[in-house]
Design goal:
alpha/beta, two-stranded antiparallel sheet, 7 helices
Length: about 220
């Protein structure tokens, strides 16, 4: 049976451990010596495809939830977890200033299956369920759902833009690209291709970014 724990005063569902379920939560949550989360931060758990997954959720304490708000899903690089990535980029401050909800899923063992050459479903299903759950629980503006990925996280976010264009408005890729050899047929090609091309950048026009941008602007 599920049990409820509290982090930062907010109830979070946690499932009873099972030997048949692989624990893919972030290293921060698994470390009993980790400090308590900052105000506005909770860790939300779910079981997806036989794995115990979780994501770091930040809702700025001053954010009014009486109107639709944007959602930004942050996909960390590897090997690191969501909290470790936040310690590097300080994205909570950006969310508080701009006024949006930030969700940072954890890759299994600090890595994303798809970026590591594994099946895409392992992370596709988890991220999709994360977005759907947040849209059902909070006043998320479905027309303003964005993905931000760094390094290995970029591989996954491009995959998600291909597979779940109905959920994704635009993506921002940092130090990463997409797997160009893999098929990509978004259900809303116009919407995702324009947005993705707008966010994809390169340094002095070199590297994989120009090729990636060309793929999305065909």
């Amino acid at each position: 049976m599920p049990r409820v724990r509290r982090r930062g005063g907010t109830p979070v569902t946690a499932h009873t451990p099972s030997s048949a379920i692989q624990d893919c939560r972030g290293a921060t949550e698994l470390d009993p010596t980790s400090p308590s989360p900052m105000p506005g931060v909770t860790y939300v758990e779910m079981t997806v495809d036989g794995k115990r997954r979780d994501y770091r959720l930040f809702i700025p304490p001053s954010l009014p939830l009486t109107r639709p708000v944007p959602l930004v899903v942050v996909l960390h690089g590897a090997p690191i977890d969501a909290q470790g990535f936040e310690n590097l980029i300080h994205f909570d401050a950006v969310a508080a200033k701009a006024g949006f909800i930030s969700a940072s899923p954890n890759g299994c063992g600090g890595m994303w299956s798809y970026a590591d050459g594994g099946p895409k479903e392992a992370d596709d299903d988890f991220i999709e369920q994360t977005i759907v759950q947040l849209e059902s629980k909070y006043p998320v503006d479905s027309k303003r759902v964005y993905l931000v990925g760094a390094s290995a996280g970029s591989w996954l976010e491009y995959r998600l833009a291909c597979d779940f264009a109905d959920h994704v408005t635009a993506i921002a890729s940092v130090a990463g690209t997409m797997r160009l050899a893999d098929p990509c047929a978004p259900s809303r090609p116009d919407r995702s291709s324009r947005s993705t091309a707008r966010w994809t950048t390169s340094i002095r026009g070199r590297g994989p970014a120009p090729t990636t941008r060309a793929r999305w602007t065909r």
